Amino acid sequence: MRRRLRALAAALVALPLAFAAAPSAHAADPTTMTSGFYVDPDNSAKRWAAANSGDGRAAAINASIANTPMARWFGSWSGTIGTATGAYAGAADRVDKLPLLVAYNIYNRDYCGGHSAGGAASPSAYRSWIAQFAGGIANRPAVVILEPDSLGDYGCMTQAQIDERESMLTGALAEFNRQAPNTWVYMDAGNPRWADAATMARRLHEAGLRQAHGFSLNISNYITTAENTAYGNAVNRELSSRYGYTKPFVVDTSRNGNGSNGQWCNPSGRRIGTPTQLGGGAEMLLWIKVPGESDGNCGVGGGSSAGQFLPEVAYKMIYGY
């Protein structure tokens, strides 16, 4: 792989608070080892546009969504997970690009919400799965979002279940630090309207944030970048005052161009946001959720399942109606 040193001056200027302490459990910086972000050649928008080239919506979806660097989500559907993550990270490495991966298979996933319920069969099964996930990436450069919703989804859980979940996340971070030294891992921290900053800082810390590179915000949600940035900085203030360290954060901007109308599950009138890039008020702005993929059987996605690509929803997101 080529080692291209790229200055992160813009990101550093934008994030003085987030860099007040050593941001990572290890020194490798995957953004300096690659020449930009990887476009998933098999993302759902690209697949739909290729299969429906005669559809009047295909050109806009292809131009505005399908060729934007986005994350690929990995779970029980991914087959042998080490093979899957290895193939994906390897494909990105061969073209000198930085891949974005989401680990989404924690035991009792979406336990309280239910729209994306599932995950590994047991805590031990998850430990094995995430170890293979990290081992597949190995020493290739990568960015990993670790288990969206896992720290916000506490409302119906017992303390024993919370402890169990935090132990799985701490163990996952240990595996990445051991096996994937050129990967930045971001623990998911929900969004500004889920838990207050003090609560989220405590949950992150108890789940092992000190071992991670940083935390992620707004995954699969619609809240503005400005509101997420203010929240991320508030979480860092709590981390600093309570535990003596801060961390960089990233924001999912894939669907926040019009902000939120208060609904999280397939709301109408939303719009795509700032494409994946370094900086922008956070360490990085990333497209984690593919615009047009359903949140579940709800809202304008009634009758769909979570993750199903809905071309009409995607098309309307391009124009904001």
UniProtKB/TrEMBL annotation:
Q: Does the keyword Disulfide bond apply?
A: yes
Q: Which PROSITE patterns match?
A: GLYCOSYL_HYDROL_F6_2 (PS00656)
Please tell me the species this chain comes from: Streptomyces swartbergensis
Name of the protein described by the UniProt record: Glucanase
Q: Identify its protein family.
A: Belongs to the glycosyl hydrolase family 6.
Q: Which GO terms describe its biological process?
A: cellulose catabolic process
Tell me which residues bind substrate: W73, W194, N221, W264, K289, E293
Active site (catalytic residues): D149 (proton donor), D295 (proton acceptor)
Whether Signal counts among this entry's keywords is yes
GO MF annotation, one: hydrolase activity, hydrolyzing O-glycosyl compounds
Q: What is its EC number?
A: 3.2.1.-
Query: Which UniProt keyword terms apply here?
Result: Carbohydrate metabolism, Cellulose degradation, Disulfide bond, Glycosidase, Hydrolase, Polysaccharide degradation, Signal
Tell me the leader sequence span: 1-27
Pfam families linked to this entry:
Glyco_hydro_6
Which PANTHER family is this protein grouped with?
A: 1,4-BETA-D-GLUCAN CELLOBIOHYDROLASE C-RELATED, PTHR34876
